[in-house]
Amino acid sequence: MDRMLGRKRYIAVFILPALLVFVLFTIAPLIVTGIYSLFEYDGIGTMKFLGLKNYIDLFTTDKHFLTAIVNSFILAGASIFIQLPISFFLASILARGVKGEKFFRTIYFIPVVISSMVIGQLWMKIFNSQYGLLNTIIRWFGDPEFEFSWLATPSTAFFTTVIPAVWQYVGYHMLIFYAGIKSIPPDYLEAARIDGASKRQITTKIMIPLLAPVIKICLLFSLTGSFRAFDLIYVITGGGPNHASEVPGTLLYNNLFRRGLYGYGSAQAFFIVIECLLFSFVIRRLFKKAEENASAV
Amino acid sequence: MKKVLKKLITLLLVVVFTMSMAACGKEDKETLKEQNDTSTKTQETPDTPETQEKVEPVTLNVWHQWSNETNELKKVYDQAVTDYIAENPHVTINTQTLDTEAYKTKISAEFAGNASGIDVFYYWGAGTARKLINADKLLPIDKYLTDEIKAKILPGATAAFEYNGKTYSLPTFSWYMTLYANKDLFEKAGATLPTTYDELIDAVNKLGKLDGVTPIAAGAKDGWNAAFVYQAFALREVGATNVNAMLKGEIPFEDAGYTEAANKVVELYELGAFGKNPLESGNDDSNAAFGSGRAAMRIMGSWFANGLYTDPTITINPDDVVALKIPMIPGKGSASDYAGGFVEAFWVNKNTKYADEAAKFAISINEKVGKAAYETGTGFCGWDIELDDSKLNPLFVQIKGLLGESVEGVLAWDTSLDSNPATIHNEQVQTLFAPNADVSAFIKEHQAAINK
Predict the structure, then answer these.
(1) Do B423 and A128 touch (CB under 8 A)?
(2) Residues B224 and B309 in one domain
(3) Are residues B161 and B65 in the same domain?
(4) What are the extents of the domains in chain A?
(5) Chain A contacts of B109, Cβ < 8 Å?
(6) Angle between helices A101-113 and A170-182 (to 10 degrees)
(7) Can you give the residue range of the structural domain that contains B124?
């Protein structure tokens, strides 16, 4: 086996199928999207070359795109500052070996395996102005006539969709943190305890630095997931009312498949790709030193 | 020993793979043989003139959007296909379906290429099919239209299927925008069935006082539902001739009536005609609200009538429902104007391998679906053929009466306009169903999208 892997020709043969699939289904569509983004194209008729006009329009004339970008950053902020801390908190409790550890691990993970369509329907019912759970509770404790529509009011629609979007993947990140915490050798924690470190000190001085690679992965997933968010928001509000809860994903879907603006929609899609790559690069750079420290231990 | 074992396992695997492939090959041959047998049988049928020639078996891939088994139109289509195959045994119809939104996306994606998996497909004429026509993706069917076929088509029914002097499809059935009113709730509220806008306002005020009743179920979460309400008032304000000219691009979107129509939607919203949060409920929610007596009125196409009799979830008595014309605005428009018309049909992909068979099938299925749609009370047949009225529901008969008084129709705007202005129109109308609606912004957005 070693002799076989030592030959570069064999390695190339083994890698080739995966490389082909990757090029065919990821790189090639990306290039095609990039090309489309330079044209005025309705998806069926002739293509007219526009150069970078679609990209210029994105930032100069399209007010909905700006709303979508701002919303995606709000979602990213909520994911990083609300979702990840909750996930870490739950993971650190579960990893300490509480009673019913397996049960809770499964319970928290359930929303991850449920289809976004189902989750969307569920939260739409919760936020319904007439029979929704939220307004029913408000009616019990406050105004009995309360019928505010959280999802149909432009000022609240997006923030309302952020709640299920954050809730859905808490279990996912919790599981990654949980696996990371479990992989920390217990000797380190025990040594810290013997040295008199408090629980808080163990968490902040031992666990978090050692979890740097895991935190990096969770941050990457949260951030890129927020930038390319689509399904849940599409189901719950469809980007409305009047584009108030638009994210780049819903906007580009609308442009591509409803308005027939393939060129313009492709420019939006390409922007999301570049945005995700850029932030992935920044996060990698930020975590480079922390990761080196963690692996040096 | 190990080497021998390895060789044996390899040999065994080779044998297993070879046998499985051989088995697959045999099955394919058998399938092919069966198909050939069918075609042979067709050739041997003595009664039809085609049997004198050698008839090649043909498989047509047909796409439509009625995927739900309970959909009346799906049943209509399936029966029509069965009848067609009985008349043309050498043809196999391979039907594929998707729900409306996914279906539209699929058709767009397929025709971005040459749509090789589609021979005949269901689509909307007028503005919707225009981009397919401009890209030369559809087959003109003029050469297949015999005098006998032409004589059977209702006058004016092909307008949405003609482009640049060529005919690309034939009508199936038409629809008619109706104001459905629950007579029982009107009586409880002491309101009269509205024939004018002022009477509508009066009815809304009275119905709004009934506990748990929304005067008009708008379904505004779905853009096309919201647009129906606006289009109804725009038709009355501006008149069918002007609206049609605007939709065709002959005159700009600038008539003051469009602003007045928007103001009327806003006025109704502010009166609570559509409930507190109309943007929260879509088409299905609003159909259910009307069907369960939680809403007194619904502006919807004639296809809605049949469901009131057949949908098991409907709890109101359909005989309590009255079909009305869109209320008139005194001094404006004509009572013979209506919203609706022929727009849906089956079309032929220009790249089909079997142009003759596909065109023949499309013509036939359009006629059969038109006939069956009428006979089941779903739509009004575009063909002047013998039709059975015996099973029509009373509500559909009422609508038929209203259609009989009508002259000039306007199609739904989102099927007449190109996809970009159509989407902007639907989205903009939704803004009228929310607090602080800005009518001047609504008009400006329309002008920017339509007056290009």
Answers:
(1) no
(2) yes
(3) yes
(4) 63-296
(5) 43
(6) 140
(7) 55-175+342-381
Phi, psi of B347, deg, nearest 5: -120, 165
For CA atoms B260, B266, B267, B273, give the dihedral sign.
positive
Tens-of-pLDDT digits for all 452 residues of chain B?
A: 555 555 555 555 545 444 444 444 443 333 333 333 333 333 333 344 444 456 788 999 999 998 877 777 888 889 889 989 999 999 999 999 988 778 888 888 888 888 989 999 999 999 889 889 998 999 999 999 999 999 999 988 999 999 999 999 999 999 999 999 999 999 999 999 999 999 999 999 999 999 999 999 999 999 999 999 999 999 999 999 999 999 999 999 999 999 999 999 999 999 999 998 899 988 989 999 999 999 999 999 998 998 899 888 899 999 999 999 999 999 898 999 999 999 999 999 999 999 999 999 999 999 999 998 899 888 999 999 999 988 899 999 999 999 999 999 999 999 999 889 999 999 999 999 998 899 999 999 999 999 97
Burial per residue of B122-131, b for 16 or more beta-carbon CB atoms within 10 angstroms, e otherwise? bbbbbbbbeb
Q: Is B219 found in the same domain as B126?
A: no
- Considering the domain architecture, whether residues B107 and B252 belong to the same structural domain is answered as no
CA distance B431 to chain A (A): 6
With beta carbons under 8 A apart, name residues in chain B contacting A129.
Answer: 276-277, 280
Q: Identify which of B384, B319, B354, B426 has the alpha carbon closest to the alpha carbon of residue B101.
A: B426
Would B354 be classed as within a structural domain?
Answer: yes
The verdict on B422 and B372 lying in the same domain is: no
CA B178, B184, B187: angle at the middle one, nearest 5?
105
Spell out which chain B residues touch chain A, with contact meaning CB-CB distance below 8 angstroms. 104-105, 108-109, 111-112, 131-132, 134-135, 137, 221, 276-280, 418-420, 423-424, 427, 430-431, 434-435
Complex ipTM, two decimals? 0.81
* B430 and B351, same domain (yes or no): no
Rounded Cα–Cα distance for residues A158 and A241 (Å): 9
Contact B425, B228 (CB under 8 A): no
Q: Which two tokens stand for residue B330?
A: 């005194």
State the DSSP code for B153: B
Query: How many domains in chain B?
Result: 2
Closest partner residue to B137 (CB to CB) among A44, A129, A261 is A44
In a domain, B115, yes or no: yes
Residues facing B339 on adjacent strands: B410
Q: Tell me the CATH number at B225.
A: 3.40.190.10
A contacts of B431 (beta carbons < 8 Å): 241-242
Instruction: State the architecture of A63-296 in CATH terms.
Output: Orthogonal Bundle (1.10)
* DSSP 8-state class, residue A9: H
Three-state SS for A33-71 is: HHHHCCEECCCCCCCEECCCHHHHHHHHCCHHHHHHHHH
